[in-house]
């Protein structure tokens, strides 16, 4: 029963992490304009995301524009978009596989050992998805920090971390934690072959036993 509860907890955390990664991918606030200089106009804030850029005014009006061409984007941004989409697709696959392998469902047959191995496979998929999102957000954040401290970049083109990158970090952490719990919920008998007997090892009969 405790094993089933561990599976449910891991599945819930993994799904929550997958949803957070989806939200982070869709949000345009991956980086926001920095107010590091004295001549920066604070009445206008600029945001950049994976799919669009937005301008927010002090009056509350927000205008967003989708990127015109994929080929005009930088290689780093294209790689970031690709990795986040891969993480989202892996999350869908992890949900499907984990659902078949959980004890509280009737999918995947009645073999408990087979279902446990399927649940472990789903947990591994969630771990891979979380790692993909974690690497993506960390790499994107490194680019922001590098440009911020680069003296050749103009002050009005420096950006800081946006809210979406923190949501992505949180989602990747939840996916890693949930996938790890799913992978650890497999009973000992389902992780490998038949366990060794605890008693004394069997030895061949000696010639004296036949006398």
Structure description:
Helix content is 53%, strand content 10%. By secondary structure, it is of the alpha+beta class. The chain has a domain at 2-30 and 73-190: Butyryl-CoA Dehydrogenase, subunit A, domain 3 (Up-down Bundle), CATH 1.20.140.150. The protein has a 5-stranded antiparallel beta sheet with strand order 4-3-2-1-5. A hairpin with a 4-residue loop joins strand 3 (52-57) and strand 4 (62-66). Helix 1 (2-26) packs antiparallel against helix 4 (163-184). The protein is elongated, with a radius of gyration of 25 Å.
Characteristic key phrases:
single chain, 211 residues, alpha+beta, Butyryl-CoA Dehydrogenase, subunit A, domain 3, five-stranded antiparallel sheet, 4 helices, 5 strands
Compact summary:
The chain is α+β, with helices and mostly antiparallel strands and 211 residues long.
* Termini gap: 53 Å
Identify the CATH class of the domain at 2-30 and 73-190: Mainly Alpha
Sequence stretches where pLDDT stays below 50 over 5 or more residues: 193-202
Following the backbone from N to C, one meets helices and strands in this order, namely HEEEEHHEH
Helicity, in percent? Answer: 40-55%
- Major sheet: arrangement of strands: 4-3-2-1-5
Main structural class:
alpha+beta
Organism: Apteryx mantelli
Function: Claudins function as major constituents of the tight junction complexes that regulate the permeability of epithelia.
InterPro entries: Claudin, Claudin_CS, PMP22/EMP/MP20/Claudin
Transmembrane segments: 79-97, 118-141, 161-184
């Amino acid at each position: 029963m405790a094993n089933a509860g561990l599976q449910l907890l891991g599945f819930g955390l993994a799904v929550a992490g997958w949803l957070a990664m989806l939200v982070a991918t869709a949000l345009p606030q991956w980086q926001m304009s920095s107010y590091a200089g004295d001549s920066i106009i604070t009445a206008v804030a600029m945001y950049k995301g994976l799919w669009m850029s937005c301008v927010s005014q002090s009056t509350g009006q927000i205008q967003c524009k989708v990127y015109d061409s994929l080929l005009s984007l930088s290689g780093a941004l294209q790689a970031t978009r690709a990795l986040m989409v891969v993480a989202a697709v892996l999350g869908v696959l992890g949900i499907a596989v984990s659902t078949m392998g959980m004890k509280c469902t009737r999918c995947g047959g009645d073999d408990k050992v087979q279902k446990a191995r399927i649940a472990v496979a789903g947990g591994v998929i969630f771990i891979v998805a979380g790692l993909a999102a974690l690497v993506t957000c960390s790499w994107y954040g490194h680019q922001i920090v590098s440009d911020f401290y680069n003296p050749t970049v103009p002050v009005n083109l420096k950006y800081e971390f946006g809210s979406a990158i923190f949501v992505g970090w949180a989602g990747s952490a939840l996916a890693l934690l949930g996938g790890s719990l799913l992978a650890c919920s497999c009973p000992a008998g389902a992780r490998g072959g038949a366990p060794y007997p605890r008693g004394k090892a069997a030895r061949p009969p000696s010639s004296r036993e036949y006398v």
